[in-house]
Fold each of these.
Amino acid sequence: MNEAWRQPPIETDGGMNLGQAYARDRSTAALSACIQAMRANL
């Protein structure tokens, strides 16, 4: 996501990058840690 903020704004439909996903490694790891913490406190 950080990479997306460094790019100029998209002004056309053709400018949308639908073929390449942004890396989610850090957010997936953070989500997992959050869920583990929530389960531990149930």
Amino acid sequence: MKKIIFISALLISVFSFTACASSKKLEAKNATEASSNEKKTNKKNGKKGAKASKNNIIEASTKDLTHKEGIVQVKVKPKMGTYNIAVADENEKLIQVLSAANEYTTTNIFLKVDKKVYGLAAAPNVKCTVSKKDNVVFINYEINKVADVVLAMDFIQSTPERDIDMVKCTISVKNTGKKKAAFTVKEVLDTILGEKTDSHFYTFDNQPVKTEVLYRNLKLQKWFTSRNESTSMQLLFDGGDTSAPELFVLANYSTLASSYWEPDMATIRSFNTVLSYNNSAVGVIWPSVNLLSEQTADFVYYLAFATDGAKPCGDQYVYGMSSEKKNNTTESVSIKKDEEPKDTVINISEGLVSTNKTPETKAEVVNTDNNSTYNKDEVAGNETQTNVYNDEVTNSYNDDVANESEEVVKKKFEENYTPKATESVEFNVKKLSREKFTPEYIQKLLDRIAELEKDSASVNRDELLKLNQELDQILEALRE
């Protein structure tokens, strides 16, 4: 009996040892296969021997990415080269602050290299990927043998008391060509919050912006907000470590979406046009920078958000920066090869250039502020067109619209666009003059009608009726 028990125990031990050994072999095989697959994946991505991403890192990919920190959410579609921003209210309901139409393509970054313009969204000649490291999202654009452009969105708190409610946006441009070239960055943000309210935008001192306006200096304006009854987006392009733009425009989207590099702002217009109704946007152009091969320039701005009727506090963060912090917080986010000493990062801040290169290879900022005539280059492939643009007209226009009272603006509007009493409004289509069929004249009619309808207390009903009848007649004739 003891012999049988001994043999049974021995057999159990043998089987257990065999099973254990088999299990270890299987684990070793799986580990080897996993390592092999990992190496193949890394090799495919151009990173041989690299280990799997850890610590909240996502390697460059063409898959859609959604990242949320605090109340701010960014969604990126790298196959289209586009992104969108939404904010969450106290009930975690997401509210879009930029247009989500057409797969986000109405918000776009443009790069002008010398005289050739590249739109980075939905562009066949631009390769786009998205990556993430901790709380920073990187949208990487590659124009082969021309430039690498990176939009880095860093999620931060405006004040210690608040949840993350702010994004620091850094656009980095690296010259990947072999020759020195002039690089200029433009961005169009298709805002939507103010489109269903009386005023599309507000200045830093809460003055409504009711018509298109252009600024060449934001020192006095500081920031703007796009908002509705509950949600606000604060746009900060001046102060702290921001990069002062050469041109800042609040306009109808169709004005900024034209093929001209600089928008045509020669006349006062509302945010409504014949082509686009109640559709506002922000346009920003930074100073042109001359970059040698492998040099990089950064352009920085901030977006701050608030929901549930609160006010954004991005100005407290940006204008609260000490001079020491200002000098230490701007970093290059583009790809740099440390082993190549010719790499240079240029931080565009308040119109100046800082560089660690020697004077003979220092990059240059091209300043056109003193010119009164500007060439407006069309998108690559089209012929260049020239449009005369006078700074005096622009500055006068800015003062009229942004700084004067509504009564003064209304008076000037009436002086320039109200039909004189001696002019009769003729509604016979055959007798309408040719000039009344121009987009400019129709736009003036639309603007005047909108102005009259806003002032319901003292509206001139007869004038309003005649203007509407005239507009109907013109549109009917155009349809014919």
